[in-house]
Amino acid sequence: MRTPLLTSNGLTQLNAELDHLWRTERPAVTKKVTWAASLGDRSENADYQYNKKRLREIDRRVRYLRKTLENSTVVAYSPQQEGRVFFGAWVEVENENGAVKSFQIVGYDEIFGKNDAISIDSPMARALLKKEEGDCAVVKTPVSTSQWEILKIWYTKT
Asked: pLDDT tens-digit profile of 98-108?
């Protein structure tokens, strides 16, 4: 089960995607479907079939976004979070091999298309929660166990 949390930036991005799909992309595809349907035989009309499929995909994504936005809680920055890892934190960690990674802990729907974000539900995020700079976190995954030291924690105050 996914934790229904969003950062304020995540809320803005999902609302922008929903608005674009509903106000821009869906009307354009609907026009194409109407035009293709006017040509006659729909069973062999590739334009009609493709755009009808695209319309279903848009409608599915719109339903998903509306449900997600309705059921999610936006977690705003709070000064009490400073110095510890909580939802929305940016964290820089280093493993025993010296590999350094930096990322933000965000909601599931905010991680796609980003290389610097991890889900609050990931093993790494769960291991880091409530820790402070200098602490070590043991991250257990089905494949391995690794140890990461927290080098830096910061928050974007929005």
From this structure: 999 999 999 99
Calculate the alpha carbon distances from 127 to 46, 78, 123, 135 in Å: 50, 21, 6, 11
Query: Cα–Cα distances in Å, from 96 out to 11, 148, 149?
Result: 35, 7, 8
- At position 16, the amino acid (one-letter code) is A
* Every domain range in the chain assigned CATH 1.10.287.180: 5-74
| Strand duo 117-119 + 100-106: pairing | parallel
In this structure, the number of other CB atoms found within 10 A of the CB of residue 111 comes to 20
Tokens representing 98? 């010296």
In tens, the pLDDT along 48-76 reads 999 999 999 999 999 999 999 999 999 98
Q: pTM for the full model?
A: 0.84
Q: What is the assigned CATH class of domain 79-155?
A: alpha beta
CATH architecture of the domain covering 5-74? Orthogonal Bundle (1.10)
- 11: CB partners within 8 A, 6+ apart: 69, 72, 74
Pairing, β 5-6 against β 89-95? unpaired
